[in-house]
Write the structure tokens for this entry.
Amino acid sequence: DIQMTQSPSSLSASVGDRVTITCRASQSISSYLNWYQQKPGKAPMLLIHAASSLRSGVPSRFSGSGSGTDFTLTISSLQPEDFATYHCQQSYTTPLTFGPGTKVDIK
Amino acid sequence: QVQLQESGPGLVKPSQTLSLTCTVSGGSIISSVYYWLWFRQPAGKGLEWIGRVSSSGSTNYNPSFTSRLAISVDTSKNQFSLNLNSVTAADTAVYYCSAWNIVARFVDCWGHGTLVTVSS
């Protein structure tokens, strides 16, 4: 199985801050990397697919980059509704696997 | 965009079978766009892929579950189902059904999730 790691596991930030979350795969996954946002008690929601493609309707303050084994999710200016947990997921091969999540909360 | 809704018992006894159904609305489960997937998430933990079924009935399972898992589709009811047998407390989790975009390779939509507790 491809192991996915994320750092940090949690972070505290203020509205307006620039936030960067890192995801690393245990082997190359090309650009087959998705990012999901999950709020407490809710299902995840897709933000970015194929490492850097913003899903339609997702605010442009979210961006993704990377290929191979190292990826980043950036929120350019954190908004109140962005406080959530963010998960990366590889879609290169089955079994599909996720990172453990990064919780973003209010400083 | 389709909508999905999980249904099934919220409490299952150890060693018994966990059975959930996902009802698809707003579109047909007979689709060349989607596979139909199950995930789960134990409280406070990350997401885990369980397996998937196509509208033709072909399956692909996470090897962690293969020996005790069956996922099936009922096109007449626009539903797909999960059966996980020999459950233990470690199977306690929120279970999500979802639609996987085959070409773009991402989960396009999710059910709301249903908590299943394994306890005597």
Remarks:
- Chain A touches chain B through 22 residues (CB under 8 Å).
